[in-house]
Amino acid sequence: MVHMDKGGTEEDEALALFETKEARFRGAYRLFASTIVVGICLIWVYRLSHLPRSAHDQGRWAWIGLFLADVCFSLYWIFTQSARCNVVYRYPFKDRLSHRYEEKLPGVDILVCTADPKMEPPTMVINTVLSAMSYNYPPEKLSVYLSDDGGSELTFYALLEASAFSKHWIPFCKKFRVEPMSPAAYFSKHSAASNSQHDLSINIGPEWLAVKKLYEEMKNRIDSIVETGMIPKKIRDQHKGFSEWNSNATKQDHQSIVQIMIDGRDKNAVDIDGGRLPMVVYMAREKRPQWPHNFKAGALNALLRVSAKISNAPFILNLDCDMYANDADAVREALCFFMDEGKGKEIAFVQHPQNYDNITKNDIYSTSSSVANKFELPGIGGYEAALYCGTVCFHRRESLCGKVCSKDYRGEWNSTEGEKKSDKTVNELEEASKVLANCSHEKDTQWGKKMGLIYGCPVEDIVTGLTIQCRGWKSLYYNPDKKAFLGVAPATLDTALIQQKRWSEGMFQIFFSKYCPFIYGRGKIKLGAQMGYCMYLLWAPISLPALYYVIVPPLCLLRGIPLFPQVYLSLPFYSYARDICILCLKCMSKKQVRVNRFRDICAIYASPLMPLRLT
C-alpha cells in the first residue's frame, strides 16, 4: 500500500518529491504479534496460579523473581512492537528535484567534528572532508566546516594539504563518477583496470594513477609530520593560520581559531578543470579549564554559530570524522524530503543509518545493528518522530536553532539569508566568527537549553531530537538501498564495550530525567513514538532480568526446584527431536554431516519414513 505524502489533486500527488510505503506483510506481522500477546498472558496466568503459597515453600522467592523478570520482558517486548509493527520506508525522487529546482537549489553546510588527532588520525579526518566536498551538487552552494575540538595544528595542516589536493580530487570524482568519494576507501576498493572494464568508453588509467600518486604523496607528508608531532618552520611560513598557535596552547586550553581555507565565494577559487570549489573552513573553539566545554554538543553549537556567520545555509549535514560519503547524490535525495511542497516544511531532520565498512564476516561485536536499521528505526520513523543519532543526519537550520514549527510556517529555504556573505573579506569573517566560538559567548543565552544541541546528557543527540519534535517538527528516517555513508566500527572488545556502556548509561539517564518521553513528549508526539524511544532508553536495565534468567533457573535446576511447567512428549516426537539435536551438534563440532540451511534440518524433521540413527 502506498501513501503519497502530499495532499491535493492527482496532479499534485504526481509531483511529490517523495513517497512513503508500508513494509510488506505488516498486517501479517501484527497478527503474529497478537499471538505472542496471548502467549504472554498465558505465561502470566501460569506464574500467578502456580505461585508457591507458603513463605516456607522451596523456591518461592526464585519463582517470584522469575515472574518479575517475565513482566519486565513482556513490557519491553511491547515497547519494541510499537516500532516493529509500524515499519515504513521512504523513497525520494531526486530526478523530480533536479528538474524542478536545479537552478534554485539551496545551500548546504556540512559540519564535521573531530576531537583528538591521536584517536582520530588526521588522514582519516581529511578523507571524510574530501568526500563531503565531492558531492554531486553545485560546489558554490556547498560549505564544509571542520570542528577540531583538540585545537591541533596537525589537523589544521592536514586540512591545508587536503584543500590543495581537492583541486585534483573533485574534478576526478565528477568526471569518472567516483564512489565512494573518500580517496582512501576508493583506492583500496578499486583499481585502474577495474574502472576501465566497468566502462569501456572511459580510459581512466592515466588519471587514476596520477591522482593516486598525488594522494599517496599527500598522505605520506601528513603521516610523517604527525609522527614527529611538529610543523616545520618552512611549512608554517606558507600559511598565516599557523600563527594562531603558540607554545602555551594545549588541547584543553587554547584560544578560538577560525580559518577559511577555501573561499567558496571567490570565483577564482577553482580546480584544475576550472570548476568552482566549495567553501572549506577550519574551526577550533576556545577552551579554558574554568569553563565547561560540553563535549561534542558544545563543539557543534559553536560550529552552528560560525557557519551561520559565514554561509548560513538553510540545511545542514552533520558528520563524525570517521563517516565518509559513499553516495554522490545523498544531498539531493535528502533535499527531496525538505523541499516537498506538501509536507516538506514540517520536516526538521532526516536521519540516515550508521553503516560501517570494517564489519567482520561474523560481526562478533554486533556493531552492524541490522535489526535496528532495518526495522526498529524505520518503525519509529513511521510516527514521523525518527531518532536523531548524532551523525549522518540532515537538519533544517531553523529547527536546530530553536524555532517552533507553527501552522503558518512556510519553510523558506531560498531567501537571501542563506546566501554566502560576499560583502565582507575573509579576514573580517574570520575575526567576527572567533567571537562566536569563545567560551563566554553562550553565557546567559539559550544555547544548550532551547537552541542547538542540548547539554547535560552523554547522549545529547537523543535529547536534542526529542526537544525538536516536541516543538512541533516532524523527523524522518531514510535507509537507502545504496549506503549513503560508511564509517569505522569499534574493532576491539574494549572499545565496543566502552561505547555500548556510554550509550546505555546515557539513555537510561534520560528516562529518569525531565526529558522522559512519557512526560516531556506527552501530547506532543504520538504514544507509539514515546514507546519507541523507551525501547532504547530502557536498554540498560533490561539486562537485569536477562541476568536473572541466566543465573537463577540453572541453580534451581541443580537443586531440583521446578520453575517451568512439565512437558510430556510422545516417543516419536522425542525421537525426532533427539536425533535433530545430535545432528546439529555434529554439524557444529566434528563437521561429519554438513547442513547448509535450516530448511535441510526441517526436511529431515518432516521425513515420514523413520528417525535418523546417529552414532
From TrEMBL:
Subcellular location: Golgi apparatus membrane
InterPro entries, A to Z: Cellulose_synth
GO terms assigned for molecular function: cellulose synthase (UDP-forming) activity
Pfam families per UniProt: Cellulose_synt
GO biological process, one term: cell wall organization
Cell wall biogenesis/degradation listed as a keyword: yes
Record-annotated active site: D149, D461
GO cellular component: Golgi membrane
Membrane topology: Multi-pass membrane protein
Binding-site residues, UDP-alpha-D-glucose: E120, D149
Transmembrane segments: 31-49, 61-79, 533-551
Superkingdom of this protein's organism: Eukaryota
Residues that, per the record, bind Mn(2+): K296, D320
Keywords of this entry: Cell wall biogenesis/degradation, Glycosyltransferase, Golgi apparatus, Membrane, Transferase, Transmembrane, Transmembrane helix
Main location: Golgi
Function according to Swiss-Prot or TrEMBL: Thought to be a Golgi-localized beta-glycan synthase that polymerize the backbones of noncellulosic polysaccharides (hemicelluloses) of plant cell wall.
Record protein name field: Cellulose synthase-like protein E6
Upper classification of the organism: Eukaryota, Viridiplantae, Streptophyta, Embryophyta, Tracheophyta
